[in-house]
Amino acid sequence: MKTTDKDHAALANEFNKDAPRVDWHDETLWWVRQKRDNAVKKIPGWEELREAGSQIKNNVLANLSGYLKQFEANAQANGVHVHWAIDAKEHNEIVLELLQSNGVKKIVKSKSMLTEECNLNEYLNLNGVDVIDTDLGEFIVQLANEHPSHIVLPCIHKKKEEIGELFHQHLGTPAGNADPVFLTETARRHLRETFLTRKAALTGVNFAVAETGEFVVCTNEGNADMGAHLADIHIASMGIEKIIPKRKHLGVFLRVLARSATGQPVTTYSSHFKTPRPGASTHIVIVDNGRSKQLGREDFRNSLKCIRCGACMNTCPVYRRSGGHSYNNAIAGPIGSILAPNLDMKKHADLPFASTLCGSCTNVCPVKIDIHDQLYKWRQVIVKSGHAPVAKKAAMGAMTRVLSSPVSYKVAGKLGRLMMKRAPFAVNNQFNPWYKQRELPVVPENSFGEWYKKNRNNKPKDI
Ligand code: SF4
Predict the structure, then answer these.
(1) What's the pTM?
(2) Which residue's alpha carbon is at the smallest distance from atom 4 of ligand 1?
(3) CA 320 to ligand 1 center in whole angstroms
C-alpha cells in the first residue's frame, strides 16, 4: 500500500478535521460492535467456542510446518498447484509469472488483505496487468485510488454522497444520485461484464484444511465464487497461518467469524475449493512474509491466530475516532498494531502507542488473542530497541525517576500544583496536544497524601 512519512497522530489529526465524519464513523462501527454483541448473546456456549478456536489455533502454531506439508500434499493430490513465497516480492513475482505465462493481461480479484499487504495491485499494474477488485467496498476504494481502511468494511470511511460522486465520475451515473440501492445495482452491472471477460481470478483464503487440501473463502457478495468459477485460472493467496487441521474445525471458525465481524450467524457464502474443474487450473500461493519471524517471538506469536474478523477494530475507541488510514498499514486497528512492528519496527514504532490499553479488543477477539497485552509488550520492545521518539523517551525517563522516589514525587507534585495555579499557560498551550480538547482541572490545595495525613492518619483503622 501507499505509505507516508506521517505518524499515526498526524494522520489521525487529518481525519479529525472532519468532525461529523469522525462522529458517524465512530457511531457506525459501534453499531456493528453492538450487532456482534447481540449475535453472540443468542448462542449458548460462546465462550466455549472462543476457547475451542483459540486451542485449535494454538495447536496449529505449535505444529505449523507439519500441517503445511500435509496441506500441500493433499492439495497437490487434488490437482492443485502449490507455490511457496518467502515474502511479498516473491508472492507478486509468482502471480505475475502465472499470468504472463498464460497470456493474461486482466484479472478480477476478490477481497484479500494479503494482496494489500504485498502491494499486489500496484505491482501488477506496473507490469501491464489490469486488476479489478470485485468486492463492492474494495471496488469503491479502488475507484477512489485509496486502500481499504478496514479489513471487513473496506470503505467504511466514505459517505454515500462521496460514493455517488465517484460513480458519477467513473461509471457515468447521474450527478447527485447517492441512493445505495441504485449505486449497488450499477456496480453489479458493471462488474458482471468484467467477470465474463476475465481469464484469471485471484481470491484470498480464509481457512485451508490440512486434512483435505481444500480451502474456504468467505464473502457476503459471492464475488469470489463468480470470479473463480468463470475464469480458467484461479489463484488463491494465503498466509501460512490460515491452516486449520481438520474440516470439522470449520464448525468452530465459521460460527465465530461472521458473528464477530458483522453480527451475522454465518457469512452468506462460505465456498469450498478443492479440485479444479476440467479444463481449468487452480494455484495456491502460500506466503510467509514475516510470519515465521512473528512465530519465533514468544510474546507475539499469538497474533498469528487472527482470523481477520475486524471485531477488535469495531470496538477500539482509538480506531473508531482516528480512521483506518491513520495506521498507514494494510491492516489497521489493534491487530494491525501488533502485526506491523514485526514487519518494520522502525516504521511502525508509533502504532503500539495508538491505544488506550482498555482491553476491549482482547475481550471481543473470537480466538482469544491477548491483543492489549501485546501492545503493551511491543512498547517495551520498541523503547529498548531505540525506536521510540526522542521526546517520548526523555519524558518517560524523567517520569521513571520521579515515580521511583517518594521525595521526588512529593516535590514534583508541589511544583506542578504551583505551576498550574500561577502559570497555567506553561501547561495548557498550543504545544501540548493533551489540552487541545481539554480544560485544566481545578488545582487542589494539597496532595492526597497531605490530606490523608491531616484527616485520616490518626483515626482508628476501622473508620
Ligand atoms: S485480532 Fe481477533 S478480533 Fe481482531 S481481527 Fe483478529 S480475530 Fe478478529
Answers:
(1) 0.90
(2) 312
(3) 15
